Amino acid sequence: MSHYLRAGEVPHKRHTVFRKPDGSLHHEEVMGIHGFSGVQSILYHLHPPTAIERIGERSGNGLKFEYAGPLRHRLILAGAAPEQGDAVSGRVPLLANRDLVLSVARFRAPMGYWYRYAHGDELLFVHEGHGVLETQFGRIEYRPGDYLVLPTGVIWRLLPEDEPQRMLSLEAAGHIEPPSRYVNRYGQFLENSPYCERDIRPPEWREPRDEEGEFEVRVKARGGTTSYLYRRHPMDVVGWDGHLWPYAFNIEDFEPITGRVHQPPPVHQTFDGPGFVVCSFVPRLFDYHPQAIPAPYNHSNVDSDEVIYYVEGDFMSRRGVERGALTVHPNGIPHGPHPGAYEGSIGKERTDELAVMVDTFRPLQMTAAAADLEDESYATSWRV
Questions:
Q1: How do strand 138-142 and strand 165-172 relate by DSSP bridges?
Q2: For residue 47, which of 19, 226, 319, 321 sits 20 to 30 Å off, Cα-Cα?
């Protein structure tokens, strides 16, 4: 984020002596992006964050893709993905390209380790479940509808409450930010942006943990995940400040932009990533021109693949789509509302649908796991 925060204890000047009560030094860690010319934060540890006790095994993260076959629209019944593991080990990758990996997860177990994705930011969308996101910056209590934005370098784990959890996750090959058109040159959200600083929930500070034991941090990088074992607790930060930190934003706080006639998808944009955008479709009033057609017009994604994750509500332009499902509309062929939806939307005043859309600017490949969950009849569901 581009907003300055400070939590806990930090010295008056950066890169200067900062001693513990016993006279020894705290250990400074500078975490920054774009070669330290972008936003950064400085964290102060009780113990060196580099002190690895031993290195465990490295597991592969190879994705198995399906044979592409003919170009067609796809419906993935991701709501039927298996319930397994935790927020990371339970992920089922569905779609990927060089810019991102899109997965779903259904799980109950807390993470008994911490995790870091080394090649970019992560975005988690909480479909079901409450719990705590624990990071070295502090903790965030999450709830359904939350986007959890985790900058690369952040060590984190999810501790769910005793209930089923369902999440959509994006691993980006770069950084996820609010769209540049929403902020001014000082980094402040503009008056016409659909959300602002008041809607962002930063981590809540908690006291450092000065504990000895065996603490595991798993780092995903270079096509595999490596386990690192530490003797000191990784959440030993006594204070931090800066502009780079994890945060939560709830989809209910996204204020829809409406008009006299149907508005194009960019009005729903919520985040900007490398090679993709993320949009939020929320309950909203329909267009108010007396002859407006509220349903989306037929359109061709000339430059992008369109993925929609259906969260809740009545999906006015689609039939046969259940909550937790994904549609994939590749560039190259047009798509639009199902037969009857276009005419049937005339005169309607509002929609109660809730969905997350990801538009990518490079073609997506579907994994074998996604192919196992596909409803193959979807491609011809526009027949009258």
A1: unpaired
A2: 226
Structure tokens at 26: 């705290």
CA distance 328 to 321: 12
CB 116 within 8 A of CB 217: yes
Q: DSSP assignment of 15-34, as one string?
A: TS--B-TTSPBPEEEEEEST
- The secondary element (H helix, E strand) that includes residue 161 is none
Q: Report the distance separating Cα 45 and Cα 147, nearest Å.
A: 28
pLDDT for the residue 1: 57
Ranges of residues in the chain whose predicted pLDDT is under 70: 1
Report DSSP state, residue 343. H
Q: Which domains, from first to last, does the chain contain?
A: 252-380 (2.60.120.10)
Cβ contact 162:132 at 8 Å: no
Q: Cβ contacts of residue 358 below 8 Å, gap of 6+?
A: 100, 102, 170, 276, 277, 278, 279, 306, 307, 309
CA angle at residue 191 from 187 to 194, to 5 degrees?
Answer: 90
Distance, CA of 234 to CA of 208 (rounded, Å): 9
- Choose among 150, 141, 145, 134: nearest CA to 247: 150
Q: How far apart are CA 306 and CA 328, in angstroms?
A: 6
- The per-residue pLDDT for range 257-303, each reduced to its tens digit, is 998 998 888 999 999 999 999 999 998 988 889 898 888 888 887 89
How far CA 108 is from CA of 37, 67, 89, 364, in Å, comes to 40, 32, 11, 29
- 384 half-sphere exposure, CB direction, 13 A CA radius: 4
**Beta-strand pair 212-221/114-117:** parallel
Query: Which residue from 58, 219, 222 is spatially nearest to 152, judged by alpha carbons?
Result: 219
The gap from C-alpha 286 to its chain's centroid, in whole angstroms, comes to 27
Closest CA relative to residue 136, chosen from 267, 65, 44, 250: 44
Measure Cα distances from 251 to 146, 195, 203, 279, 358 in Å: 6, 10, 18, 10, 14
* Contact indicator for 276, 352 with CB cutoff of 8 Å: no
Cα–Cα nearest to 234, from 151, 136, 137:
136
